[in-house]
Backbone:
């Protein structure tokens, strides 16, 4: 209370303050702290955005001012590279042509084989024969051809020739149907 002087003037309740010798920055720091707490992130991102924008513009200006100098290349080196690339292209084209000719030959052979088979089928049809594919014999009967033919000739057919499981009609036995599997209804 050394700074305060009390004087008896017009009003007995008046208090006079002495001028500040060391001004305190507390109100200023409070205002800055409040500003940062409210808009701190916005200020940080805004500053960062302005910095990046300035960097981008400076790079753009520098690239527009001076175009990159052409790189010196040896004419002989360029010619050798082009010749090597042309030779590689020619080699690849020759390989492709060879593969294409082989493929065409195979296609012609296949077409000729199909045409020959069609002619054979047509001839056999004209002669009244039915066409069936190449005959194949089953593996177990190849060595025992005589025995297989004897057992097949001696056996009777298991079903009649007109039996068809999909038709559903083969006499009196088609009315029978087996019961359901599972537990009985009463239990």
Residues:
């Amino acid at each position: 209370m050394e700074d305060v002087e009390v004087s008896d003037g017009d009003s007995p309740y008046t208090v006079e303050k002495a001028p500040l010798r060391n001004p305190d920055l507390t109100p200023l720091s409070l205002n800055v702290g409040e500003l940062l707490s409210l808009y701190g992130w916005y200020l940080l991102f805004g500053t960062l955005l302005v910095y990046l924008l300035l960097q981008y513009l400076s790079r753009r200006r520098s690239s527009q001012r001076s175009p990159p100098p052409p790189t010196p290349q040896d004419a002989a080196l360029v010619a050798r590279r082009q010749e090597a690339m042309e030779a590689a292209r020619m080699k690849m084209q020759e390989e492709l042509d060879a593969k294409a000719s082989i493929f065409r030959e195979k296609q012609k052979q296949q077409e000729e084989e199909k045409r020959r088979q069609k002619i054979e089928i047509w001839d056999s049809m004209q002669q009244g024969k039915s066409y069936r594919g190449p005959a194949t014999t089953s593996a177990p009967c190849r060595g025992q051809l005589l025995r297989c033919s004897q057992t097949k000739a001696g056996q009777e057919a298991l079903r009649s020739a007109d039996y068809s499981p999909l038709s559903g009609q083969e006499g009196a036995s088609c009315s029978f149907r087996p019961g359901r599997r599972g537990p009985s209804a009463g239990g």
Remarks:
- The longest helix spans residues 75-126.
- Residues 40 and 127 are 101 Å apart (CA to CA).
- The longest strand covers residues 5-6.
